[in-house]
């Protein structure tokens, strides 16, 4: 302790201030406060607590007390002066470094020899560390309690019989119940449909204590709704601190619903809500594995809507989507729950028939679908007739792997589409050979013009009165290096599919112009040469200017060329075609309508378009010599055409009897195998040289 003044020492009553030497070395802080409240003595423990003791001598003890604890310190000081002994007073004080410390201090009155009060003796203990530790413990406990209460997870401990031994407070947040509100065992809130599954998993974890069981299960919320929880279960029955099954679960209802929605978007078509291609192929792959294992059969039907683009283009995509929805309903009505109806991209559907009993069943199904589609589909105010082409494959005949089966189903569908609308075709190996040939032709077609493999044949047109050659039709042939001479039907559709029909058509027109010029130079009598224009050619941009340029380059008058178009082209693109035809006529080009009489509005278009030539379809000519009705129709067409100043050409004449009738009906020109098949230029010129009369 500090050295007290002799006066103070002499005044002390040793009975109240004993053991001075002992107190000097005491580890706790010992201090003496005068009646005025100033520090007048201290030990080394005091210096350890607040800093060098000499700095505090004769300073008021309240100067080191925390402002918020001043009232406590003042009251304690007064009470001690009044003779009370303060056993425990908690204060916060400032050390010389400015750090706040927490202390517990005890104070007793300090009396002199004559019994009078001369000061206060205090003993202080530093409890800062304990207070901080306790604060942390309290904070952690509060945090843990808050976590248990507000956690999105619930902790449950079950006995071996399934009774709840503990539920964390968070159960109220997750399923609405307070921990003590839930009656009975845990299983009482499990969905009835999930109960057997949950009980089985509970018994499993009892029998296999080392395993962790993870399950999704539905439990009932306090509000009555069913919530899906994701539960992780561990067997700690042998743990003396737990002695039960621990279940930690949290609500995953919204997450599972979102996952289901995403899964649905990934595997289902958004228009028809049918399974999509991804779903179909995954399911087909699984069924193929089953069929291989069981030595059973399955079938796949590929259904394509004929001319669906026409519905979208004319009525709009909204109507088109509604047609797809109706078709989805119709197709689904024909199959069982084990079958799959899926929508492919665009206007295609597929049906999977797993484990079929008979090989004829897929054909029977296709036939029933086609019969139903002969009836109209009602969409809004429209009554629509929709036809389809169906390809069928049967496992294992058409392939044993998914990709092969899908490819062959596609081939069968296209075979049906090419053969006849609203029909079905079962895949055969020959189709694959045909497809391989088409694929080869498609690739070779791109090089054919460069390699000069195309050639024009000419079929004569004969005057019905004189039977002399008065014109010709140019028909393209492909001298293929592998397959020989190919007719237009073998490659024109391919050229349209791969976008080569326009340059090919331009080559034909240019070659016809050059040939007309060659015949003129050889001295042959001038005649009109006709050639066919496809829809793509007719609708191409800059058609009229391109034709004009080719005429100028070849120095051929447009009046010696006739372009044949089909009535179906007019029906689909009426106004656009009319403008193109008017431009071609200004160049002198003759316009002929081919296959006349097979469309829907033939007579109205005769007046509107003012064609130069009408070509009567072969279907009318075939039995003209035996059918009085056909004769009457042809006679009417010829008379009408003559009144409209149009020439009439009958094509497809093969019999003398047909020729006789047409001459009687005053047809203008004739064309057909009866006179000549299409011939190469050299052979056709022989007809011109001998002034052939048939």
UniProtKB/TrEMBL annotation:
Residues 438-692 form the EAL domain. This is EAL domain-containing protein. It holds the Pfam family PAS_3. NCBIfam families: GGDEF, sensory_box. Residues 296-429 form the GGDEF domain. InterPro entries: Biofilm_reg_signaling, EAL_dom, GGDEF_dom, PAS, PAS-assoc_C, PAS_fold_3. It comes from the Bacteria. Residues 15-84, 140-209 form the PAS domain. It comes from Evansella tamaricis. PROSITE patterns: EAL (PS50883), GGDEF (PS50887), PAC (PS50113), PAS (PS50112). SMART domains: EAL (SM00052), GGDEF (SM00267), PAS (SM00091). Signal peptide: none annotated. Residues 87-139, 213-264 form the PAC domain.
